[in-house]
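JOB MANIFEST
job_type = single_chain_structure
chain_count = 1
residues = 316
[input]
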Amino acid sequence: MNFEKGSHLRDQLSLHFIVFIWGFTAILGRYISVDAVSLVFNRTAMTTVAIALFMFWKKRPFRASWKEIGFMALCGILIATHWITFFGAIKIANISLTLAGISTGALWSALLKPVLDKGKIDIIELLLGAIVVVGVVVIFYETPDAANLRYYEFLGLKVTNYQLGVLIALISASLSASFSILNKQLVARYPLPVQVTFWELGFAFIGVGLYDLIFGSHNPMTLWITTTSDWYFMAILALLCTAYPFIQSVELLKRMSPFSVMLAINLEPVYGIGLAALIFGAQENMTPTFYIGVVVILATVIANGIIKAQKRKSLS
């Protein structure tokens, strides 16, 4: 019994360490000097190679049907676009505002699931979504650093760089939710998560390269990072904050319930916002109103998870 308790405690500590690492991803996004497209290009390249080496070491197969590869390509494009908008929002606004917007992902999932997974609309989830909107409105009017304030105009509407960052973060959260829903369908049919991630990140890398070839510089080779400091931070981002957490989280899911994992993952914005305030100081210090908005969003997301768990328990 004591051994089981010790194993459970180790799993919990390992899970929270992974979530803490994910919270550190945004910090690295600020330190890496290249733009969001180049950042994701390098991240997906390095992580794909790392996972491929892991698969060779573990003698995991790479094979998949053409139908599944097509689905993985779609998921790869989604995750690449999610990361580009995520890091883009950080560079336009700041880490705290971006993570506040990203924390709406679970409720985006609730809204998009009926569309992408042919499920039923849940009235409770819609009501919880309305509460989240209140939290988003609160953070939308934050201006943490007036010295870096810029204005953008779209279709006659004028927004600050901080407001634009929040809007992009919300789009990023919706893309992440769409990826999670479709990825769950894929893993249900193709239960080899490491292989799935290899193909998805590989296609994400190819997709970013093709985007730059057609719409960007027309020469993807210019996307490679060149400075030594960027290479150091990119290695940490790709290996410690991407490849390792994924492989470890797969192992933990074999022993822990999805609900326990989900509740821990909801703490990622908390870790990220706390680290940002600690490392970047005044640039990330927000007003008490902002933190109230974040608490409203996180409390609603956690309440949604608890309600779902209670529903599943009553049906079992």
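[summary]
The first helix runs from residue 2 to 31.
The mean pLDDT is 86.
exit_status = 0
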